[in-house]
Amino acid sequence: MAQQSAHNVHRHLPSPTDRPLRIGMLAPPWFALPPSGYGGIEAMVAGLVDGLVARGHQVTLVGAGEDKTAAQRFHAVFPEPPSSRLGEPLPEVLHAAAAAALFERDELDVIHDHTLAGPLLARGRAAPTVVTAHGPVLGEPGDYLVALGPTVDVVAISWAQRRLRPEVNWLTTVHNGIDVASFPVGKGDGGYLLFLGRFTPDKGAHLAIDVAQATGRRLVLAGKVNEAAEKAYFLEAVAPRLGRGIEYVGEADAATKRELLGAAEALLFPVCWEEPFGLVMVEAMACGTPVVALRRGSVPEIVTHGETGFVVDSLDGLVRAVEAVESLERRRCRSRAELFDNARMVAGYEACYRALVEGRELSRRARPDDPTLVSAHAPTSAGRRPLAGRPPGRPSAWTTW
């Protein structure tokens, strides 16, 4: 249906290849745009909006709280983001319903939805709906995307993510981006390893502590501990091990995050699930800081093993990698991060929008053999071919070996 809608819209467009597009952008309601601290999706949306406006497009943005983006039109469903209610269904359902009513009144060329509930309202729209798969695609989240079928066109944030669920109506792959210039290159002279992220078993803070203790290194942990599951994990797996060189400094805002990354000897990224992207890896490399990570999900697409970090398969591998990070050049890390600059992401999504408006089709075929390739979007090619084999299963919550 999304493809048919794109053809219907195309018949009314005078010059689709170069005219500014009218884009409806639906952000999640949980944090401001851009967020002051935690909020990876909101940060990505804010960067995308600013980039699209800079390229001459008209953006109607629906979010929460105060808007600090360049969007020409902004509607806040919630005057204050309901961050404390993160995980409850009703705020997002209300948010999606309000956005759908607003978008229906506007003459939009394309709608880009970053929420969970919003895509349910895409059926029957005149304009095509693009959905970015920000989270996991195995289990029920993937079943949901499959059930949406052709009512939406789904953009993957990594090739690894697409390979896990080839039956999703993938449009193409666009890696997340950051404003690389806003991340100063640090000297890595802080004398510590860094863990930066949410405190859940999937993110592996407990493994970061194991690595620090095995190598005798100081470890700084920073991240969000707000939700009940995060608090439970932190109290059980992290808090009892603090002290003796293991330090928790709280949730880092934008400035603190840059300071921590720039001074760190390495970022530890011991993920225990099929991470679809992992923006913090790009942020670390932008600061010149190498990444030591487990080989899960998108990690090999982002980190160049032996140049901008080490991608390993076990706790022992992490330990050996930490001992070798001094051999890596921080300038190479920065150069790698520049491949994930916002400008590439914006160009990738602009290509998606124009393809749908013009009734063209981008590649729906997952790239087969080059997981390290970085591109703004897939090469143009029609057709879809499911990948052979079975995607790897998710491990038990706290183990990776």
Describe the structure.
- The relative contact order is 0.14.
- This protein is α/β, with parallel strands linked by helices and 401 residues long.
- The protein has two domains: 2-177 and 341-357, Rossmann fold, CATH 3.40.50.2000; 180-339, Rossmann fold.
- It contains 13 helices and 13 strands.
- Residues 1-16 and 368-401 have low confidence and may be disordered.
How many beta strands in the DSSP annotation? Answer: 13
CATH class label of the largest domain:
Alpha Beta
Instruction: Let me know the average pLDDT.
Output: 87
Second-tier CATH architecture of the largest domain? 3-Layer(aba) Sandwich
Total domain units: 2
How much of the sequence is in beta strands? 5-15%
Task: Break the fold down into its secondary structure elements and pairings.
Blueprint: H1 2-10, E1 22-26, H2 40-54, E2 58-64, E3 73-78, H3 89-105, E4 110-113, E5 129-132, H4 139-148, E6 153-156, H5 159-164, E7 170-173, E8 193-196, H6 205-215, E9 219-222, H7 228-238, E10 246-248, H8 254-263, E11 266-269, H9 279-286, E12 291-294, H10 299-302, E13 309-312, H11 315-324, H12 330-337, H13 342-357
Parallel strand pairs: 1-2, 1-4, 2-3, 4-5, 5-6, 6-7, 8-9, 8-11, 9-10, 11-12, 12-13
Q: What characteristics describe this protein?
A:
7-stranded parallel beta sheet, disordered N terminus, single chain, Rossmann fold, 34% helix, globular, 401 residues, disordered C terminus, 13 helices, 6-stranded parallel beta sheet, 13 strands
